[in-house]
Amino acid sequence: MATWRTLHDAMLGEPLSARDERAIVDVLATKTISGRILDAMVVDLATADWSGAVRWAYRRNLAARDDGPPRHAIVTSNTSRLIWLLLAVRANYAADFVDLSHAGLASDLPLVGQSANLSNVDFTASVLTGATWRGSNLTKARFRDARVAGALRCTDCTFGNQRYGGTATLIDGKWSRR
Amino acid sequence: MESALTRSVGRRYSGWIGLVLLVELALLPWTAHAYDAMAFLSHADRLYFAHVRLAPLWAFGSISLAVLLISQLPVLFVPGLWNVVPLRIFLLKFPAWCADLGSAAIIGASGDPRLANAWALRYLLDPAVVFVTVFHGQADALPSLFAVAGIALMLAERYELAGLMFGLGTGTKFYPAAFVPLLLAVAYRRASWQRAALGFALFAGAAALTLVPVLWGRFGDVVGAYANNSFGPHGNGVATASLWTLMPPHFSLRQVSVWMTPQLEQLIAVSVPVLLAIGELRHVPGRRDVARAAMLAAMSIVLLNPGAHPPFYLWIAGPLVLYAAVAGDGLVSVAGFTLSCVGVLTQFCQEGSDEYFLLNFGSASHLSLLRCLAPADVLQTVGLCAAGVVVVAAYRRESLSHRSAAIWRRAAQAAVAVVFAAFTLAIGVKTAIAIASHSKATGYDGEERAFNTFAIGPAVRQLGDGSCALTYAASDIIVYAGNPYAARFATASLGYTLFSPETMSIRGRATRVGSLPPTFENVDVRTIGQQPVRITREFDVTSALRPFRYVERFVEQPCTLIRENPLLIYRFDFHAAQAAAAAMPLLQRLDIFARGGR
To answer: At A130, phi and psi to the nearest 5?
Structure first.
């Protein structure tokens, strides 16, 4: 807690350097941290530099393949969680491109895909957990070759200018409204 | 022959006035500042459908409140009109539009009778007048009518009635009180101290009668709202519509360090009218002196106001054009036109674009014809120059020749006419395109939801055992508190940026927050203190908090580490309230003071 408080005050007080941001993300990726502190760190990172934090988490997620077990599984799980938390706090109006292709994003977090702004996010060839997403914005989001354990559905989600009130299902990288 | 020519000129101007009024009436329903319009409409809706008390959340005088409520009366009688937004916006703006007519008539009657219609038209075409009343939907024309009437009555040496007008103006929106020092000085010098005292007494009585209903028990809240509006949530803001934007907050003067705080700047703004009044004690002021001092007083309380908003520029237009009519000063009229343009252009820079004013039409394609043309410091530099021209021109000893005066007057007329034509044409084209594209009039739904969502951040006190005492206090905001009738349509929830399991003790009962009815959200809310907070998860605590209170105290275990978490969010469902009202018999619906209920 004392470490978090020190980091929190430092991040609020001065602009976050790329080196410090990467170091913080690396700690969050490799250590087991309580949910409360992780949530607070995510909010601080998002406030300081949302896109940079996502980028570092994504790169660490990809680099985890070079880690042997069990570190590979821990880092992939932690970075996946971190990325989904950052996506949850993404600004409503944000539409810039976010590259999450080939990432391991399987997660059992309840908030995954729930009222999230996932516009222009590239999930190409990423690993996702089957679930029913709700109320999310999937405008220009890409899912080609995404590997889903189970079925991925989206209810009341937005595709471009249309909000589709029914349930769409991801089939072969495309959302089908059947 | 001269009188025939005068009548001919007057008729021509009458024709133009008629055309301008027709065009304005046609444009009234289609545009509005979305948030301000929804704030006004919601205030009426809360009274008519939720039976809340009249004054809470109202930061102006009772006259403007009464005008608003009367304008929206049709909704009480025919609840189905509730979401006919263009009609409601027309009704909202109509009183202010009529007030502008009144101001124009007074201005026309105050100067050369041969040019009465010309000066009336000049006022009606002023960019600030057209923008604020016809386009924006603010009601500054109402206090402006009282201010202009008061100044005209001073010129006519009817000081007692002038005091009454300033009092009623103050009871509409506070600023006409700035003309009272001038009233006292002029009445004293031109008449007697007794008449000055009587004028002041009438001002004070009228102001008290019209302010007490809205200030009683709320003085602190109104002052707080005024301070927030003037100085920002942190007390150190300077609005881009103020000339103080051009001045650095800290500078040195002869090795003396000077800090210009917004509070000091406000003090300067309200001191200038007093100094102007004191200056008129040096002699027996003539009509031109009085009109000039009134004009400069209006300019100071707007341009030197650190919390100036663009609609305030309408406060200048009336006294300025009145002075120009009295003095026959077309140069001041031209400079005043420039000043009004600065105010309008500042508005488009603050709000970003014209799309915001056309929310009547939802997501129709917009042409972005009206946009931010220059940064704030450039606009305010132009404003400063224009204000300087006004001051220099108004104080020059020698009057312009008839020919020069006519040239400047016509130049001002031409300028306002060209801008009016271009502006109304642009709005007309955009409105026609939006109607032709069959856009749905649902743009205001989001503004209505935003305006009727009250997010209160906690005041946190750490207790020794790892828990925190959270206090949520918003006495003037939770208008549904202590009102069972309204509470039926209100909900309360705890909002989290990111949620971690915790226990919350609510009214002495410990509850696992995760067990409450949850929703995932994707909202960016602004708290009462203007802090932006992102909410991704909410938990319904409506049943635990009914009946609602102004102040809630919870104990959270463990303490959250995220700023402004959790928010206590109150929402009001006007759809449900309006539907309930529509289902009632008319006589029952008219009992807007009934506050009981299950």
So the answer is: -65, 135
